[in-house]
Design brief:
The complex is a heterotetramer of chains A (179), B (480), C (623) and D (106). Chain A has 179 residues and is mostly helical. Helix content of chain A is 70%, strand content 0%. Chain C has helices at 2-22, 24-27, 29-53, 82-105, 112-131, 135-153, 160-191, 196-205, 211-229, 237-240, 246-255, 260-267, 269-273, 276-299, 303-323, 327-354, 367-370, 372-386, 392-407, 409-434, 442-447, 453-468, 479-484, 500-526, 539-545, 550-598, 603-622; strands at 59-69, 72-80. The chains are: A mainly alpha (179), B mainly alpha (480), C mainly alpha (623), D mainly alpha (106). Chain C: Residues 66-116 form the NADH-Ubiquinone oxidoreductase (complex I) chain 5 N-terminal domain.
């Protein structure tokens, strides 16, 4: 069954989770809802940070760090720079037809419904969670897994990043107006 | 002589014709056509020595498709028809000059190749491939070398192509379903399967769509008259002389043995459809203004009768159908050639513009007359044998079928003689009609000789086809 | 010996045909005629020889298997028995005479070689018809003579009216042929053979006979006979067939081909004897045909049309006899009729020849002096057909009427009226043609002459036969009946003992004939009445003159509807079907056009569809 | 800390990430500004990552985290290329409104 947090007797962790979840959802929503792209970017940044918090809560320090670096450090900077580069920080969005909005909302509800129903349906929510005490998510272990089992994909990821970099450079380079 | 050699000869012939250049192409094509005919005769003699004529090799492993050719008496008869008509058709075109004739004649040989393959194939997918392959050359022949307004022609030919292709797809579906059931495409195994009545019904129907469009039976015939009219005469001959027979042959070879229960249950419907075609075709032919269209509708009437004979599921019906198929093949080629001869001189196919030819060309008149008479099944011509046997088998099913189907001998005489009267008789035509050339005469004489010879002595063909037909009948009757 | 003789008999005319077709044009007109005639004479000679030497047992010559049906084989074979020899005798005999006649008659025609070719081909097919050993062999000849009839009626092919007549003859015959075929099918499936000798054995010995199917078979075969022998309702082609050259009318449409129906019925007498109900129909049809045709003949003005309707009427009388199972009587009348009708046609041909193609009797008259031989021979033949003692027609017609009298008084009355009318219209013809003064143009009058001897000799021979032909079957001691006796399964037709009734009947018939002649004499010789012009004909005679409007009725009932239907099919149904097929294509096209609008390039829409799709898939897979 | 899931429960993470994901979807459909659409996609990616990590903890298996690592790498590459494309589109068409990008129209 779904466990409804008992707010009266909530443990600190539960409180932290609730707070984080609310922040995550709210900022995510505001990201979409804000009219100015720059505001969106800021909201998104907060969202990502809260997700990092979730990671920490789940005790996966490595991913928390990576998330911090990659998303907040790299991706957000990219986005912010792009926005500034294009000078888009204005409400330039044209009028959206009602049908679009309606469609989006319907889809949103439908998607939620389907996904939640699917998860509930797929497996009765698992009972008690027991720890084996085994270490599986320290940086040490992850490093081993990553460089033993997932050696090749790891290297490929680097190639991918390289290619993406070159591609990005090529794409954003101003075309020489030779024609 | 191996059965594959025939196909190889034809295929190589098509290539050789293409590379021999425009000037030599007709002769090369004729040569290879004759070679294929000789090869068929060799096969026939082997068959008569009680040799099994077979060629099987695995082609695709999964799904299991064999390159399987098998020639029993029936297939041989059809092969002979194909390879005998092809040189005649090629020879008949010598009086015309075609643009890019190397491609034209290569396509003819290629089409013959595909049609011969259809008659020989004993694996469903192989058969299907040949079946569809034969459509491609005729499409180009009719489209590129046809006559009349180009737009109109394109419309008619594309309709024909898509229509027949769409029909055949149902057949492919049926084959795939059968493969799911039996794990084989070989006719030998398909004709032994025990399908339920419902399955048989649907499979029968799928086959029927493919064949009814190809044959064509009413009401699936609308492509026929237009394409016959627009295609060059050579194409029309190929279509009506051989290609229609593919549909009829397939009814006997594939449809009846695979789904005999459905065939028995709905026999009356399909016989009725065939006979309706006889009457309908004859009546429509009465008021046609275009000579080739008239012949097209007469063809519709005749194949209706043949199909009705095949669906009687009796030995007589099948035998009559096959005999009539062969006879009709020859006679219709002859008649279309006559139309072409007139066209070469008068540049028209409108009956109203003809007339008064007899006075100028008695030889041509006699030969035309004989062909007309053969077409209306005068006794002592080959067509009579077929028509008599078919009508007899119909009378065994129900005497009314024979009476209604028999109206063909009245209506057939009516429209053919009316046509003959308006084309040939009457006051001498003002325009000069040169008598037939040697080549034209020879073509007609060969056809007429065949018609008379087998009209008086059909025994060789009857002996050739009867054992295979009996075989098929045993398969048809396996549920009893 | 027999085989080769039969083959020569059969193939001689065919060789003549081949010669005339391939070499006729080069060989010259006289050679063509001689070869054509000789080939028939050869057949006649062989027939005579066979006639002299034949035993009682029929000779069967089988050449090879022709058509194979599941339950029986049809052999390509010939049968020579009394019936076929008798028929061959007068077919080849009269055929020879008419060939001889044609040499002169057709001499001016440029296509004489094809004329003789067709005539020879006709004789060939007629021999096949007569000699065929089974129903299908007979059918070859049956359709073959129909073909030759078609070719010869339309001999002057430049005239489309003649071509129409030829086409009509062929198609009418084909209707009958369908009946014949159906009959063959029924016989085949009932008895598993089509061979005459086996059929006879089976039918005469079999016990459990399916009456209904036998009757149907007989009826179907009778329809076939109707077509060929011009009986109601299929008789209208015969008068039109007079479009052909006169020798053709004499040979095909009077003496030989039209008697094929009677031949067939006689050949299958055992079958028809099993179906008394059909025999009744035959008798009634025959009588009615005789009367109807005779009434039409009363008012016709075309000399050949009169003879044509007379032929139909006489054939009707023959069928009357057949209907009573009196086959030998019918055969007797066939033979005598062949003589005098051939003579009449050839005579009329001679007249037409003399008048350069004039066929209207209103424009003739007074030819007695200029054409004495023609006049005398035609007079003899007319007396014969009218049934005046002791000419051939008297004996044969009398026998038919006598048979009718013994079976059915009503039919006898009808038959007698028909024969009185016969006497009337024949002498109307004679008086209008040969007596009084000439009514044609001056130029024609100037050229009037007796025909050459090649024309008159056959006339004389035929007239002699018309006169004495009756002796082959005199009441009491009939050679013909004895000769044909082996053919008939029933103990032959009981001989008429010549009692008072018979003599009375003969007297009545003769008096009737004389009355008919008398009326004609009064009206056309004494009063010198000339039939009025076409437009002035009124009342009943107008109906008769227009042949009861039967042609028009057939046209309205059968031909027109079929043609209208054809136009309807061509213009409406065909286009609709075609549009339906194209419609399928159009629907596809329309769907594509509408579907195209969805792909408007808006990513939002695509994504929306995509998300919906994902939802659907997830729902389908996991819920 | 190791009994965190005992206290919160995996299902709450599931709900969280589903809602987060759906917000992402909603954003993609709702907004026409390409940058925001991009951000929405990032949200969706993060929702999935979060779920991965949650399940990784739940199953006590490192593989889930490794996968998140890779997906982050891919996301980084994607953003780099995607933004480059956006820039180039903006240069050429002077807008990044997806409503105007209708070259796909058939």
């Amino acid at each position: 069954m779904i466990r409804i947090p008992d707010f009266a007797n909530a443990t600190p962790i539960q409180i932290i989770f609730c707070v984080l979840a609310v922040i995550t959802l709210f900022t995510a929503f505001m990201t979409i809802y804000s009219r100015k792209p720059m505001h969106s970017a800021i909201y998104l940044l907060i969202c990502f940070t809260s997700i990092t918090g979730h990671y920490l809560l789940l005790n996966s320090q490595f991913l928390a760090m990576v998330n911090l670096i990659v998303y907040i450090g790299a991706i957000m900077i990219l986005i912010v720079f792009t926005i500034m580069l294009m000078n888009l920080n204005k409400e330039n969005e044209v009028y959206k037809p009602r049908i679009t909005r309606l469609g989006a909302i319907v889809t949103f509800c439908l998607m939620c419904l389907v996904l939640i129903a699917m998860f509930i349906n797929s497996k009765p929510i698992v009972g008690e969670y027991t720890t084996t005490g085994e270490d599986y998510q320290s940086i040490k272990v992850l490093g081993k897994v990553l460089l033993n089992e997932y050696m090749v994909p790891f290297e490929f990821a680097s190639v991918l990043l390289l290619v993406a970099m070159i591609g990005a450079v090529l794409l954003s380079k101003k075309e020489k107006t030779t024609k | 002589m191996d059965v594959t050699h025939i196909l190889i000869i034809l295929l190589v012939g098509a290539l050789a014709t293409y590379f021999s250049g425009d000037k030599w192409a007709p002769k090369v094509a004729l040569l290879f056509g004759l070679a294929a005919f000789a090869g068929s005769i060799c096969l026939l003699s082997q068959y008569n020595l009680a040799n099994e004529i077979n060629y099987v090799t695995l082609w695709i492993a999964k799904p299991k498709i064999y390159f399987a050719l098998h020639a029993d008496g029936l297939a041989l008869a059809m092969l002979l028809l194909t390879t005998a008509l092809t040189p005649i058709i090629i020879f008949s075109s010598f009086g015309n000059t075609y643009k890019n004739s190397k491609a034209f004649y290569a396509l003819i040989l290629f089409m013959t190749f595909a049609m011969a393959g259809t008659f020989l194939a004993s694996d469903g997918i192989l058969y299907y491939i040949f079946w569809e392959l034969s459509l491609i050359p005729i499409y180009f022949i009719a489209l590129i070398w046809g006559n009349g307004d180009a737009e109109e022609r394109k419309k008619a030919v594309v309709k024909f192509f898509i229509y027949t292709l769409a029909g055949s797809l149902f057949m492919l579906v049926a084959f795939i379903y059968l493969y799911q059931k039996t794990g084989s495409f070989l006719i030998r195994e398909l004709s032994q399967t025990d399908l339920s009545a419902t399955e048989q019904f649907w499979i029968f129907l799928a086959f029927f769509l493919a064949y009814a469009i190809k044959i064509p039976l009413i009401p699936f015939h609308t492509w026929q008259a237009e394409v016959y009219q627009k295609a060059p005469t050579v194409g029309t001959m190929l279509l009506s002389g051989i290609m229609l027979k593919m549909g009829l042959y397939s009814v006997i070879r594939w449809q009846l043995p695979i789904a005999p229960m459905a065939a028995k249950e709905f026999m009356y419907v399909f016989i009725g459809l065939g006979i309706a075609g006889v009457i309908y075709g004859s009546i429509v032919a009465l008021r046609q203004k275009d000579l080739k269209k008239l012949l097209a509708y007469s063809s519709l009437a005749h194949v209706g009768l043949i199909a009705a004979g095949a669906y009687t599921l009796t030995l007589d019906g099948l035998r009559g159908a096959v005999l009539q198929m062969i006879a009709h093949g020859f006679v219709v080629v002859g008649l279309f050639f006559v139309a072409e001869i007139i066209f070469r001189r008068y540049e028209t196919r409108a009956i109203a513009e003809m007339g008064g030819i007899r006075a100028q060309s008695p030889k041509f008149t006699s030969m035309f007359m004989i062909l007309v008479l053969a077409s209306v099944a005068l006794p002592s011509t080959f067509n009579f044998i077929g028509e008599f046997t078919v009508l007899y088998s119909l009378s065994q099913v129900n005497i009314w079928y024979a009476i209604l189907g028999g109206t063909t001998i009245i209506l057939g005489a009516y429209y053919m003689l009316k046509m003959f009267q308006h084309v040939m008789l009457g006051e001498t035509n003002a325009r000069i009609f040169a008598d037939v050339t040697f080549n034209e005469g020879l073509t007609l004489v060969i056809i007429i000789a065949v018609l008379f010879f087998f009209g008086l002595y059909p025994k060789p063909i009857i002996d050739l086809i009867t054992p295979s037909l009996e075989n098929i009948l045993t398969q048809v009757n396996r549920f009893n | 010996m027999d085989t080769s003789l039969v083959l020569v008999l059969l193939l001689a005319p065919f060789l003549g045909f081949l010669f005339n077709v391939f070499l006729g044009k080069k060989a010259g007109k006289s050679v063509v005629g001689i070869v054509g005639t000789l080939s028939v004479v050869v057949s006649f000679a062989i027939t005579l020889y066979l006639f002299g030497n034949a035993g009682k047992e029929p000779v069967v010559v089988n050449l090879f298997d022709w058509i194979t049906i599941e339950r029986f084989n049809v052999k390509f074979g010939f049968l020579l028995d009394q019936l076929s020899i008798l028929w061959l005798l007068f077919v080849t005999g009269i055929g020879s005479l008419i060939h001889l006649y044609s040499i002169s008659y057709m001499h001016d025609d440029e296509k004489i070689h094809s004329f003789f070719a067709y005539l020879n081909l006709f004789i060939f097919f007629m021999i096949t018809l007569v000699m065929g050993s089974n129903l299908l062999m007979m059918f070859i000849g049956w359709e073959g003579v129909g073909l030759c009839s078609y070719l010869l009626i339309g001999f002057w092919y430049k005239n489309q009216d003649f071509n129409d007549a030829a086409k009509k003859a062929f198609i009418m015959n084909r209707i009958g042929d369908l009946g014949f075929l159906i009959g063959i099918f029924i016989v085949g499936s009932l008895f598993n053979t089509l061979d005459f000798t086996s059929l006879k054995t089976i039918i005469t010995t079999i016990d459990d006979i399916n009456d209904l199917w036998i009757a149907l078979a007989a009826l179907a075969l009778f329809i076939g006979a109707c077509g060929k022998s011009a009986q109601i309702p299929l008789y209208t082609w015969l008068p039109d067939a007079m479009a052909g050259p006169t020798p053709v009318s004499a040979l095909i449409h009077a003496a030989t081909m039209v008697t094929a129906g009677i031949f067939m019925l006689t050949r299958l007498n055992f079958l028809f004897d099993m179906a008394p109900s059909v025999q009744n129909i035959i008798a009634i049809v025959g009588a009615v045909t005789a009367l109807v045709a005779a009434t039409i003949a009363l008012v016709q003005n075309d000399i050949k049309k009169v003879l044509a309707y007379s032929t139909v009427s006489q054939l009707g009388l023959m069928f009357l006899a057949l209907g009573f199972g009196a086959y030998e009587v019918a055969v007797f009348h066939v033979i005598t009729h062949a003589f005098f009708k051939a003579c009449l046609f050839l005579g009329s041909g001679s007249v037409i020849h003399g008048l350069h193609g004039e066929q209207d009797m209103r424009k003739m008259g007074g030819l007695k002096k200029t054409m004495p031989i023609t006049f005398i021979t035609m007079l003899i033949a007319s007396l014969a057909i009218a049934g005046i003692f002791p000419l051939a027609g008297f004996w044969s017609k009398d026998e038919i009427l006598m048979t009718a009298f013994h079976h059915n008084i009503v039919l006898w009355v009808i038959g007698s009226i028909a024969s009185i009318m016969t006497a009337f219209y024949m002498f109307r013809l004679i008086y209008l043609t040969f007596f009084n003064s000439f009514r044609g143009t001056e130029e024609q009058k100037h050229h009037l002459h007796e025909s050459p001897s090649l024309i008159t000799v056959p006339l004389i021979i035929l007239a002699i036969f018309s006169f004495f032909g009756g002796i082959i079957s005199l009441p009491g001691h009939s050679w013909l009946n004895e000769y044909l006796a082996p053919l008939f399964s029933k103990v032959s037709h009981e001989e008429h003992t010549l009692g008072t009734t018979e003599y009375a009947l003969m007297a009545i018939a003769t008096i009737g004939a004389i009355i008919g002649i008398g009326i004609a004499y009064k009206k056309y010789l004494k009063d010198n009445t000339i039939p009025s012009e076409d437009a002035e004909i009124t009342g009943l005679s107008k109906v008769l003159y227009n042949k009861y409007y039967v042609d028009e009725a057939y046209d309205a009932i059968f031909v027109k509807p079929v043609n209208v239907l054809s136009s309807f099919f061509r213009d409406a149904v065909e286009t609709t079907l075609s549009a339906l097929v194209f419609g399928l294509g159009k629907v596809t096209n329309e769907i594509a056009l509408q579907g195209k609008k969805v792909h408007n390039g808006s990513v939002g829409l695509y994504l929306f569809a995509f998300v919906l799709g994902v939802c659907a898939i997830l729902t389908y897979l996991f819920l | 800390m190791n009994n965190i899931l005992n206290q919160i429960g995996i299902e709450n993470y599931i709900f969280l990430s589903v809602i987060l994901f759906c917000i992402g979807v909603f954003g993609v459909l709702y907004r026409r500004n390409a940058i925001i659409v991009f951000m929405s996609i990032e949200i969706m990616l993060n929702a999935v990552n979060l779920l991965f990590v949650a399940f990784s903890t739940y199953h006590q298996d490192a593989q889930g985290q490794v996968f998140v690592f890779f997906s982050m790498a891919v996301a980084a590459a994607e953003v780099a290329v995607g933004l480059a494309i956006l820039v180039s589109i903006f240069r050429n068409m002077d807008t990044i409104d997806v409503g105007n990008l209708k070259n796909l129209k058939g």
